[in-house]
């Protein structure tokens, strides 16, 4: 159990939260706690390791009774909050599917209900925008030149606008690059191309803006998502094109 707030850990902490109690329970005792909680997964294999750590523990023993009750209370509260969060996310996912053409947008691998709901909630009514550039400006992702007097600086995003919209678009970009092949390919191209290669963060910003344009277009027109259109930015050499055609 790597996370103290993980399901397996919390079930143990509700019952036994100090090393001596865990040692007394033993490997089978821990497994029985998880079995009674109807947990499944790899956690069972860590039971003996947890007991071994408990046996070697040199933690303080003073005030153990008060500490025990406090930890148990926190464990139960965390589990209650997890249940509430699960209910909220389930409700959010159902509401997300009420968005027109949501299923088309969710075809983008890596862009799930949470991300889509976050973006749409921050954008608001799509009909009030005449162009996607207005939303890009609203998100603070519009490009501005950092210059003063005779000094000409680099071009960066403005960071003016809705911070949460910018956050969700950036999450969409990171997730799409991790899960969607077309965006992985784009990210590699942007960061390795011979002419004006981008830094990783710059590439993610470009991809975030591209995802915004895709979402805007689908919400406006109801068109299906086409992964191949994402690759049009990639300029391939004649030799590479010939090899691909062959």
Automatic annotation (TrEMBL):
Residues 103-187 form the Transposase IS116/IS110/IS902 C-terminal domain. It holds the Pfam family Transposase_20. GO terms for biological process: DNA transposition. It comes from the Bacteria. Coiled coil: none annotated. One of its GO terms (molecular function) is DNA binding. This is Transposase IS116/IS110/IS902 family. It comes from Fusicatenibacter saccharivorans.
